[in-house]
Design goal:
heterodimer, A: mainly beta, 4-stranded antiparallel beta sheet, 11 strands, globular, B: mainly beta, 5-stranded antiparallel beta sheet
Chain lengths: 114, 109
């Protein structure tokens, strides 16, 4: 069974803290994505990666960075968390050039920044 | 204007009813379209792809109208288990996957 695992389901952090969200997939997918989901705004792409050590900015990269040192792992980093980064963060993966467009999502990490 | 727009609902329908959702897109470069389903507090999962020729999977039918730039999803004989949020997705390749904000469906006993 395909699996995308996010390290933390729920996190509470304080403003200014550094936050790491980790994502691991076991499907040997080339593409990995980080989205955030907010009510009324839907899913918005933060960053994606199509290969190890490769990364591309999505629609809302400000305040975030990513790391992909291994094919199966894609990390999202908030260098200095702010309250407007309180959100649900979803990691996803897919095959390179997937014609079905199917993204496999993790269960999400709900981050609250106080 | 958002690239993919959906009526947020909620659509409250009785069991057994037929319900249809529409989604409009503004980026004519989008080549592929999909419907995802997201249950409450769960991750989105692919429901079905959308083709110009139509795509049917059991009680679900999806249709793409490129001329009018809209996508539809029809659910026949609604079940309680169909209650979820349905996300319309447009793709111009893996680098450009755009999600709508979702349409909430509540099927009532």
């Amino acid at each position: 069974d395909v699996k995308v695992t996010q390290s933390s389901r729920y996190l509470v952090k304080r403003t200014g803290e550094k936050v790491f969200l980790e994502c691991v997939q076991d499907m040997d997918h080339e593409n990995m994505f980080w989205y955030r989901q907010d009510p009324g705004l839907g899913l918005r792409l933060i960053y994606f990666s199509y290969d190890v050590k490769m990364k591309e900015k999505g629609d809302i990269p400000e305040g975030y960075s990513v790391s992909r040192e291994k094919k199966e792992r894609f990390s999202l980093i908030l260098e200095s968390a702010s309250t407007n980064q309180t959100s649900m963060y979803l990691c996803a993966s897919s095959f390179l050039g997937s014609s079905t467009g199917e993204l496999f999502f993790g269960e999400g990490s709900r981050l609250t920044v106080l | 204007r958002k690239e993919v727009e959906q009526d947020p609902g909620p659509f409250n329908v009785p069991e057994g009813a037929t319900v249809a959702f529409n989604c409009t897109y503004s980026n004519s470069a989008s080549q592929s379209f999909f419907w995802y389903r997201q249950d409450c507090r769960k991750e989105p999962k692919l429901l079905m792809s959308v083709y110009s020729s139509g795509n049917e999977d059991g009680r679900f039918t999806a249709q793409l109208n490129r001329a009018s730039q809209y996508i539809s999803l029809l659910i026949r004989d609604s079940k309680l288990s169909d209650s979820a949020t349905y996300l319309c997705v447009g793709s111009g390749g893996y680098q450009k996957v755009t999600f709508g904000t979702g349409t909430k469906l509540q099927v009532i006993p």
